[in-house]
Specification:
The chain starts with a helix and ends in a 10-residue tail after the last helix. By secondary structure, it is mainly alpha-helical. The chain is built from three helices and no strands. The protein is 76% helix and 0% strand. The protein is rod-shaped and about 115 Å long.
Length: 106
């Protein structure tokens, strides 16, 4: 007798589920299946867009911080003066006295 009762309960649950689905989704079963597959697709696209936006934002912030650190290093760098650099006048006189030997050696 218990198996018969259990079969009746299962068949009633199945019937209620079918009626509920028919009420919510209408008589066209393919529409219900398409809606079941569209939800994960939309969720996946949204998740991918959020991940891409996060990567772009992270890259932008890292680049911005790099530029700020580089500017800070340039501001704090000591000014190097070369006291041994020749003056423009002395370099002109040393060049005037030299001769070119590249073409007439043979």
């Amino acid at each position: 007798m218990r198996k018969f009762d259990q079969q009746i309960v299962e068949s009633v649950n199945l019937r209620r589920g079918r009626l509920r689905n028919a009420f919510f989704f209408g008589p066209e079963r393919w529409r219900r299946q398409a809606q079941d597959h569209v939800k994960p697709l939309v969720f996946g696209v949204i998740a991918a867009a959020v991940l891409c936006a996060g990567c772009v934002a992270t890259s932008f912030v890292a680049n911005l911080l790099d530029k700020q650190a580089q500017q800070e290093r340039q501001r704090n760098a000591p000014v190097v003066t070369n006291s041994h650099a020749p003056s423009p006048a002395s370099s002109m006189t040393s060049r005037a006295g030299t001769t070119s030997t590249s073409g007439s050696t043979r």
